[in-house]
Structure formats: C-alpha cells, structure tokens
Amino acid sequence: MSSPNRILVNGRPDGMIDPLDRGLAYGDGVFETIRFVGRMSPLWSRHMQRLQDSCTRLRIPCPEPERLWQEALVVTQGLGQAVVRITMTRGAGERGYALPAAPQPTRVLAAFPAPIRAVDDYRHGLRVRLCETRLAIQPRLAGIKHLNRLEQVLARAEWDDPAIAEGLLCDEAGRVISAVMANLFAVIDGVLITPSLERCGVNGVARAEVQAVREVQVCDLSLGELWQASELFLSSSVHGMLPVRSVDDKVFVPGPVTRALQQHWCELGFPTELA
Amino acid sequence: MSSPNRILVNGRPDGMIDPLDRGLAYGDGVFETIRFVGRMSPLWSRHMQRLQDSCTRLRIPCPEPERLWQEALVVTQGLGQAVVRITMTRGAGERGYALPAAPQPTRVLAAFPAPIRAVDDYRHGLRVRLCETRLAIQPRLAGIKHLNRLEQVLARAEWDDPAIAEGLLCDEAGRVISAVMANLFAVIDGVLITPSLERCGVNGVARAEVQAVREVQVCDLSLGELWQASELFLSSSVHGMLPVRSVDDKVFVPGPVTRALQQHWCELGFPTELA
User: Fold this and answer.
1) For the segment B156-200, what is each residue's pLDDT rounded down to a tens digit?
2) Which of A30, A74, A224, B13 has the fewest CB atoms within 10 Å distance of its CB?
3) Could you tell me one molecular function GO term of this UniProt entry (chains A, B) (predicted)?
C-alpha cells in the first residue's frame, strides 16, 4: 500500500503552488486549522461557517463544505489525532493588487499529526510571556483568520525558552486582545470576559464554542484589569481549553469556570486527557 | 529555440512552491519589483540594499545580489522593457509560527513585460481616489516591502473605474501616508515633503532616489495640509514620477519640482517617454 496523501492542492495529491499565486504574493487568502479525532471533527461546522464568513469579507469564492470534508478524510487517513489546515487563496493572478475578474481560487488541505501537550499543561496551566509586539488596529481585517500573519511570526520569535508556551498580545493602544495562537478568557469579579475583536485579533472557533455554552461578556480589557482575574485561560481549536499559570511574574490558578469548559471540551468528543 | 524562462524558483526554471511554504502560510517574506530597461536596471543597488534591510529586520537569510542579478538576466531575456519581481520567503516549515531552526529560504524571480502608462499620465497626471481603507499602525513592519499586503488588496478593490489610476491612503489616525502602489510627495509652501513611514507604509526605492537628489522634509502630513500643495506627485520604481491631477474633486497641476524629477528619471536611464 502506498503511504497516504497528507496534502491536496485543488484536490491533487502531488499538487504544488504556482509561484504567481496571490496567497504567496500578498497573503491574499484565509485559513482554518481544524482538529480531527479519527474521522470525527467536533467543531467542523463552526470552521466551515468562519471560512465562509472570511471568504465573503475578502470576496474569495468559497468551496462547498462537502468537498472539503471529503478531502479532509483523505489527508487524515490513518492518523488517529490530526490537525487539518485548509488554506484558500484568491489564486494566481497578474502582477498588481487589483482583484482578478475571474478568480480561480487555490485550495490546500494539509494534515499533520495533532501536537500533544503535556497533561500538566491542562492541569496546572501554561507559562505565558507578555509580548512586546503589539497588534495593529485594522477593523477591515479584524476577526478574519487571513494569511497576513507577520505580527504573529514576530511575536512568537520574541522567545525561545521551551518552558514558555504562549505569548499575550495587546493592541497598539495597550488593550489586551489574545494569545499568539489562541483566544483569551478571564474571570473577573465572577464574570467570564473575552476581549473584543472589532479592531484586531482572530475570531476563534473555540472562542465561539465557549460563547455558545456560557454567558460571556465581550469588552475592552486593560492589563490592569486582567491582573485582577481569578481565572485566566486560552481557547484553541487545536488544543482546547488551556489554563494560564503565569504571565511573566503574575501567577494564576485554574478555577471552576476553566474546569467546566475543559469538561465541555471532552463532552464534545475531544480526548479526555485534554482536561 | 525554446521560449525564455520567465520564472525561476530557487534557480529552477520549472520551479513550483511547496504548499507548506511560510510565504504562503503567513506571508512570511519580502519582495521587490524592479524595473529593467533591456539588460540595465538603474535602481538595482537601491533594491538590493532594501532587500537586505528587509531580510535583516525579519531575520530571513538574504541571497547574494550577484546571484539575483544573474537570475534577473535570465528571466528578462528578450524583454526590452521588463519588471522583475523578486520574492524571498522563509521557506517551508512545520506548522506553527515559531521560526525554523535552520530556514531554507525560497527565492522566486519572475519577469513581466513592463506596464506602459499613457504619455498623458506623465504630462497631466493621474486621477486618484481617497481610499476608505486605512493603513494600520505597526512600527515593527513599517517600511518593509513584506508579503502581508491585504490592506493594499482591499484598498485597490475600492474602485474599478479605469479612469482612476491610484488610491491615496491615510493611516488609522488620519495621517496621509502614500498611494496604494507608490510613495507620495507634495510641494507645500515651496518645501518638498514626503510622509514619514515610521508607523506604516513601504520605504520605496524611487522615494529613496528622490531623497538622494533633492532636499526632502520627512514629516507627518494631514489631508488639510495636503490640499494646500502646489504640486503633488507619486514615485514608483516601476512607473517613475507621476504627477497627481486630482484627488477626488481636489485638482492639482504638475509644477517645476515634478518636472525636474521626471527629467532626473530620464537621466537615470529610464525611457524618455516617462516624462
């Protein structure tokens, strides 16, 4: 038996990318990273909804979810725990920013073994760094999981200590927005809060799931307010609900809201070692 | 004789891009668009300097200019008037934002016939639209011609009237920064001014050439100040010095500073019909 195809480009197993693809030239596209458990993907519909919304906002034609599902099953074949990255670009185009009259979008599905976090990360939480890199304020792109990710690359490059798992990002005005690779939740005065993503940040699928099952207040949040949190945790469609143990020298302890949402994550069908 | 190779990827004429290239995944790279006149490229050294600076800021290994020059000669072969786009990415990597320990950068050289502008554009100037899209403020990326260009895609998508050639971009705070595809100069009270690019915008090679031959004041500029300009023009390494005839309903007339810089452009070796 031949080894499974872990990458499909426009459905082709040996597919490569045209050097003139606008995804490469301008980051003109969007992506999703989707957790699979065998042939199941508990948040698939939410990912499809966000992909559709993102494509609509950027005027990129969006493929049928059914086709993406079939291709995801191909690339994850034989992987017990997988992450599928779907990348949709506006496709190849002439030189220049103007939108092509008849775009031929490029579709990439790539499967990776799901990254495994230590059980300790879920029990006691992650060590987090407060990043110096600030997120720029750009309401026209805010919320979209688009391919312009240099800010995240710069932020992640701020540390190489493997004991630090994540970075906390503020926007140019100093508001707390998210982690580098995850959204952020805090319990402050007994209220579950997540930062507004109207100006920057990525509208996470795991964040949407939390909002669907708990009352969440979406608001602006300063660092001073964040330090008052009785619980702090990250939401990630790849990693689930991750308590924050510390942000630099500020210490936090996982509490009942975090535990309840970890429990919910297991009930969705994600592996129980994630809580 | 076979037709010339207009694209080289890492020196290979049939080269394609790995679907896992970070240039595609995150826009993790930089580019240059360089005007060629036959086998001559008057601003080549300035492009090489900027490419080196950009790569250094993003910690991407930069290839030797001599190798790029040889490859540029290959892709432009037989083209009298060409534009060469050089794209440098951090190369393929594992999933995730963290920098690869040993990056294998990807190098794309692609040649296009140089776009021709009407002589009237150089004589009387371009019609320009004031864009609604604002440039986000991000000092860590300001000046770099990187691959995160969704703002320019959004701005250019604001109009499809072919009579409008360019868009004027302000930053989130309302300061005038540049055009979508070019830098901006204004003569105000007899002083030649170009907006500061400390917060956003691209540090243009043609802009640097203007700064090398004229006294230029670099400063913040409001729209109110811009409307007082006696001359307004754009600088572009592809198109040279382009007067602005109008920004929406505000009208401008090309003046002596614009004409002198167009003359300088010809003296550099660019075609004389560009003035």
Assistant:
1) 999 999 999 999 999 999 999 999 999 999 999 999 999 999 999
2) A224
3) 4-amino-4-deoxychorismate lyase activity
Q: Which DSSP symbol is given to A222?
A: -
CA distance A256 to chain B (A): 30
What ipTM was assigned to the predicted interfaces of this complex?
Answer: 0.96
Chain A from 141 to 200: CB within 8 A of any B CB: 141, 146-157, 160, 172, 180-181, 200
Q: Which of helix, strand or coil describes residue B260?
A: helix
**Nearest Cα residue in chain B from A107:** B19
What is the torsional sign of CA A72, A73, A76, A79? positive
Token readout for A55 is 């494509």
Q: What's the pLDDT at A1?
A: 44
Strand pairing category for A183-188 and B126-135:
unpaired
Q: What are the CA-CA distances from residue B20 to residues A85, B81, B96 (Å)?
A: 10, 34, 11
B98: closest chain A residue by CA: A156
CB < 8 Å & 24+ apart, contacts of A102-107: A103/A60, A103/A61, A105/A29, A105/A60, A105/A61, A105/A63, A106/A9, A106/A10, A106/A17, A106/A18, A106/A21, A106/A23, A106/A29, A107/A8, A107/A9, A107/A10, A107/A11, A107/A63, A107/A68, A107/A71
Q: Which CATH architecture has domain B119-274?
A: Alpha-Beta Barrel (3.20)
A236: tokens are 């990630």
Q: Cβ of A27 and B149 within 8 Å?
A: yes
CB contacts of A28 in chain B (<8 Å) are 149-150, 153
Structure tokens at B105: 């950068």
- Output the pLDDT for position B125: 97
- CATH of B7-113, picked from 3.30.70.20, 3.30.470.10, 2.60.40.1530, 2.60.40.10, is 3.30.470.10
Is B153 within 8 Å of A110 when comparing Cβ atoms?
A: no
Which sequence spans correspond to the domains of chain B?
7-113, 119-274
Amino acid, single-letter form, for residue A21: D
Task: Of A258, A210, A202, give the one whose Cα is nearest residue A231.
Answer: A258
| Residue B101 sits at the chain A interface (C-beta within 8 Å) | no
Q: Say whether residue A109 is in contact with chain B using an 8 A CB cutoff.
A: no
